[in-house]
Amino acid sequence: MHETSQPALGATAAGLAGTWAWRLRLALRPMHRASAIALASFLATHLLGHLAGLAGAAAHQSVLETLRLVYRQPLVEGLLLGCVLFQVGSGLTLLWRGRGQRRGGVAWMQAISGGYLALFLLVHVTAVWVGRFQGVDTNLQFAAAGMHTPPWQWFFGPYYFLAVWALGTHVGCALYWNLSEPQSARALAGAMLVGLLLAACLVALLAGGFDGLDLRAAGGFRDAETPTRVLAVMGGGASFG
Ligand code: HEM
Predict the structure, then answer these.
(1) Whose CA is nearest to atom 5 of ligand 1?
(2) Among 2, 31, 52, 94, which residue's Cβ finds the most Cβ atoms within 10 Å?
(3) Which positions, given as ranges, span the membrane (predicted)?
């Protein structure tokens, strides 16, 4: 299968799911939740897999290559991209439908974190695919390139930090609505705290803040010019990784 097949498959799957939901007048919220559950297994391994970078760039690369054996199967990746597109589309629709009716802090946290995640997912996945079409290995060095190309660290640091924290917050809000007191408040606070800690850890890792990860050493950036070259390949000197 050619690499363009996965995005095409993903767009078809998301289009069919959306059309099916619309024709059968299915409630969008349960479908948004179902697609989130399907995405969750990828996202959990995706983010926890990045923690392998704590043991160095080579350890991260070997974990990434093992995970790719599963999610880079064309059918799996097509369905993953379908879930991403459906998640973004259904989330933005729910956001729009709920305008003017939101009451209380949790409803607003859910809306704001969801809106940011939709934006992040579109930019992040597009950047990964543009990189792949350009022949770049979209590994940890690719993700970290912006953090090592001043002044882009001021964009990429908050961009990644908010994404991981927004994910924890969004999951926490979903748990809040589906549990009863006092578990609901605890689940929300716990998920936000896990998101916050994971976000801080991953951004510090990308910035090269842990001893294990020297992105400029062999196997990482081969020289000081590498991050700039990755950004240049991504187009016009700026990229969104
Ligand atoms: C510090 C945080 C993050 C980093 C460093 C990061 C990095 C990466 C990298 C390097 C890839 C390419 C993987 C490959 O080539 O096999 C990727 C793909 C992807 N990431 Fe992330 N990511 C982060 C957070 C997130 C978050 C928060 C989400 C979702 C909310 C997310 C969703 C995805 C998706 C859906 C893909 C596409 C998989 C594919 O089509 O092959 N990522 N990410």
Answers:
(1) 143
(2) 52
(3) 6-24, 36-59, 79-96, 108-130, 159-179, 191-210
